[in-house]
TrEMBL record, chain A:
This is ATP-binding cassette domain-containing protein. Residues 270-283 have a biased composition (Low complexity). SMART domains: AAA. Keywords: ATP-binding, Nucleotide-binding. GO terms for molecular function: ATP binding. The keyword Membrane does not apply.
From TrEMBL, chain B:
It comes from Cryobacterium glucosi. Residues 27-206 form the ABC transmembrane type-1 domain. Pfam families: BPD_transp_1. The keyword Methyltransferase does not apply. Keywords: Membrane, Transmembrane, Transmembrane helix, Transport. This is ABC transporter permease subunit. Residues 224-245 are annotated as: Disordered. The chain crosses the membrane at residues 31-53, 74-95, 153-177, 189-209.
Length: 296, 245
């Protein structure tokens, strides 16, 4: 569990990046900090591994204040995945993944074997192990970045817009991969993004941030969609328009969900027959079966 | 009659080869002098340059100081130091070390500065210490530019080292000064040719070394794509091709 207690960060130039921020990040869940630029989300993330130290307030990991821990040691115990992968360009894929274990003194052979196994874990072919990052596609680089983040088997994984720089198709792939991984590994993930769709897709808990790291709303995706706290949240999540503002229209005896532009988004199943919504992880929302979407 | 053929004749005269004042000995002295000067300058300039490059502090002072050092006329400094510490090799070592420091310093810190900030940030975020960042990230990635700095320092020192003969019985400069005194232009030109040849050989070695130290991962990502795009493909096709990658 990670706890932010009244955390404030003022940068030397006077910018108040985070103002009196408090949040509990539950263990083994994905918490997404979502907001536009200037909301302080990356600053908050970087305070967890002491890449940034707060001006005031404390951050605790399982009851231990991070300020009492040695930054280098702390960082080696936390996985960190960033945009554009941040891989070392002069080291091969396998050496990049093994970076931190090697720093921690794991024997080379063991570190290498572990790194190869991690390539499997993140869905990469071992054949690319001896390539350099510049020889990989953006999506592959991000996977290597995730593998490196997992290399020390950390409890906590910090992800700073990790899929921000890849194209939409690869991004969707990586998101699904992360969901699968998280299902297997159950890490405490703190994920930063400006993409609300990504937040809803990946987050168990979502904190929508306004400028200065003020929490506009905290909750599960369903809670936020069902009851946007205010107009800011409603407009940020798009609950008032487009594909999120669905209404029911009857068509040939079946209920069709239509978005605000009048395009069909899906059909309503489950509730009509009286049976509860089936299966889905978030069973408190009606289950929607997507129709063939309009051509993009 | 022709100075140049005279100089070649002087160079080819076997009488100019043996002994401590022969061509091989003088070449050796010149080379030794250059190497020692570069080592002295590197010992001073590289750590300072790394410190500036890593911390990002003191750059303004470094630029101003090395600009100032570059502006000092080497012959003037040499005379000044020689008057102060006396005739011998001490003065040329000081003067030429001062000459060699600016390019090496600049190579050291620009090499660090050229490393992608995001790469360094990531290295720190995964738990490298500052020293490990210097050793495992900044030095390997900044090395080509440092070698570039050493290369231009070498070129300046090996040529200017002829001035050492002004205050000491040392190096290829002896041929120039001796020739000047006796109006032996063949000897002067011959000595000059030797300096030029030595400079070219060192330049070639450094050019090769500079290519060699580009880390493989950086090298493989770069040239083939560029070369193809600039010479083998029509300009109009470039965007369509590179976008797909």
């Amino acid at each position: 569990m990670i706890e932010f207690r009244s955390v404030t960060k003022e940068f030397p130039d006077g910018t108040l990046a985070v103002d009196d921020f408090s949040l509990t990040v539950p263990s083994h869940r994905t918490t997404v900090l979502v907001g536009s630029s200037g909301s302080g989300k990356t600053t908050l993330l970087r305070m967890i591994n002491r890449m940034v130290d707060p001006t005031s307030g404390t951050i605790e990991i399982d009851g231990v204040s991070v300020a009492s821990l040695e930054p280098v040691k702390l960082r080696r115990s936390i996985g960190y995945v960033m945009q554009n992968s941040g891989l070392l360009p002069h080291r091969t894929v396998v050496d990049n993944v093994a970076t931190v274990p090697l720093l921690r003194g794991v024997p080379r052979r063991t570190a290498r074997a572990d790194a190869l196994r991690l390539l499997d874990t993140v869905g990469l072919d071992r054949a690319i192990a001896d390539r350099y990052p510049s020889q990989l596609s953006g999506g592959q680089q991000q996977r290597v970045g995730v593998a490196r983040g997992l290399a020390v088997d950390p409890n906590i994984l910090l992800m700073d817009e990790p899929f921000g720089a890849v194209d939409p198709i690869v991004r969707a792939e990586l998101q699904q991969e992360l969901i699968r991984l998280q299902h297997e590994l159950g890490k405490t993930v703190v994920f930063v993004t400006h993409d609300i769709d990504e937040a809803f897709l990946l987050g168990d808990q979502i904190a929508i941030l306004r400028e200065g790291g003020r929490i506009a709303q905290l909750g599960t995706p369903a809670e936020i969609l069902a009851n946007p706290a205010d107009d800011f949240v409603a407009s940020f999540v798009g609950a008032d328009r487009g594909k999120r503002a669905l209404h029911v229209e009857s068509q040939d005896g079946s209920d069709v969900l239509v978005d605000s532009d009048g395009r069909p988004a899906g059909v309503l199943v489950g509730q009509r027959s009286g049976a509860g919504p089936s299966g889905g992880a978030r069973s408190d929302v009606p289950h929607i079966v997507p129709t063939e979407g309009p051509p993009r | 009659m022709n100075y140049f053929t005279d100089a070649v004749a002087w160079l080819l005269d076997p009488a100019h080869y043996p002994g401590p004042t022969g061509i091989p000995a003088r070449l050796g002295e010149q080379l030794l002098f250059t190497v020692v000067t570069l080592v002295l300058a590197s010992v001073i300039a590289i750590p300072v340059g790394f410190l500036i490059g890593h911390t990002g502090r003191g750059r303004g002072i470094a630029v101003a100081t090395s600009g100032g050092l570059r502006a000092i006329p080497t012959l003037g400094l040499l005379t000044l130091v020689a008057l102060w510490i006396g005739i011998g090799l001490g003065a040329p070592y000081v003067a030429l070390t001062v000459l060699a420091i600016p390019p090496i310093l600049a190579g050291a810190y620009t090499g660090f500065e050229a490393v992608n900030r995001a790469t360094i940030d990531a290295a720190r975020a995964v738990g490298m210490t500052e020293l490990q960042i210097v050793r495992h990230v900044e030095i390997p990635l900044g090395l080509p530019l440092l070698i570039g700095g050493l290369r231009s320092a070498t070129l300046q020192v090996v040529a200017t080292a002829t001035l050492a003969a002004y205050v000491a019985d040392f190096g290829l400069g002896r041929f120039l000064f001796a020739g000047l005194k006796t109006n032996d232009y063949a000897q002067m030109l011959g000595g000059s040719i030797l300096v030029i040849l030595l400079a070219l050989v060192l330049e070639g070695l450094f050019a090769g070394l500079q290519k060699l130290v580009v880390p493989r991962g950086v090298a493989v990502g770069r040239p083939p794509v560029d070369r193809k795009a600039s010479t083998r493909r029509r300009p109009g096709m470039e965007p369509a091709i590179t976008k797909g990658i």
